[in-house]
Each structure stands twice: as C-alpha cells, then as structure tokens.
Amino acid sequence: MKYIIAIIQPHKLDEVMKSLEDVEVNLVTVSNVLGRGRQKGLTEVYRGAKEVGSLLKKIKLEIACNEDFVEPTVQAIIKGARTGEIGDGKIFVLDLYDVIRIRTGERGSKAIG
C-alpha cells in the first residue's frame, strides 16, 4: 500500500480529477494549501512597486492506493497537472503501514477498496 501526496496548481484540479477517473481512482482527498517552491512566491506590480508574495495557492491531493494502482495514479496526476512551467507541483509516494475502515474494522488493502 502507498500514500500519494500531490501538490498541484489550482487551475489544473479538474484535469487531474478527470485523469484519475479515467484510471479508476476515485478515493481522493483534496485540500486548499499555501506553499512555495523554486519560484519563491509570486512577484506582482502594485501601483508601480514590486510586491512579492511569499506563499502561493496550491491544491493538495491525498490518495491511499494498493500497489497495482500506484503507477497509473502517478501518471494520471502528471497527465492532468503538467504545463511544462515552473510551479507545476510535486508528487510524493510514501509507504503506508496500515489502513483501517472505521465502519467495518477492515484493515490493509481491503480497507482501501
């Protein structure tokens, strides 16, 4: 089992969700987050002066999946999120020790579904 965390541009969420649906990944948690990467925030001009914001709006996706779904999930996120520009985001794939479905008490891969 793996836990996939992806940080993407907000305007790419619909495309990523469609790509995930296409590979039958439906169990996704989505959060609005703030962060910065190499671009170190956004530079804007306001009344002739440069204003630098240190944090940008991003979307965080969290997906728990069984081993068979890891690569299709990663490729679906890349397909939906990639623009080719700095700031497209990151995908983190972590080992998942255990999962428990609260309603039934099922554990492990059965709890993921």
Account of the 3D structure:
The structure is a single chain. The radius of gyration is 17 Å and the shape is globular. The protein starts with a strand and ends with a helix. It has a single domain, classed as Alpha-Beta Plaits. A 4-stranded antiparallel β-sheet has the order 2-5-1-6, with helices on one face. The chain is built from 3 helices and 6 strands, in the order βαββββαβα. Helix 1 runs antiparallel to helix 2. The chain is α+β, with helices and mostly antiparallel strands and 113 residues long.
Q: In the CATH scheme, what's the topology name?
A: Alpha-Beta Plaits
Determine the structural class based on helices, strands and strand pairing. Answer: alpha+beta
What proportion of the residues is helical, as a percent range? 10-25%
The helix/strand series, from N terminus to C terminus, equals EHEEEEHEH
Question: Which short descriptors sum up this protein?
Answer:
single chain, 113 residues, alpha+beta, two-stranded antiparallel ribbon, 6 strands
What is the fold's blueprint, element by element?
Elements: E1 2-8, H1 13-22, E2 29-35, E3 42-46, E4 49-53, E5 56-65, H2 70-81, E6 89-95, H3 109-112
Antiparallel strand pairs: 1-5, 1-6, 2-5, 3-4
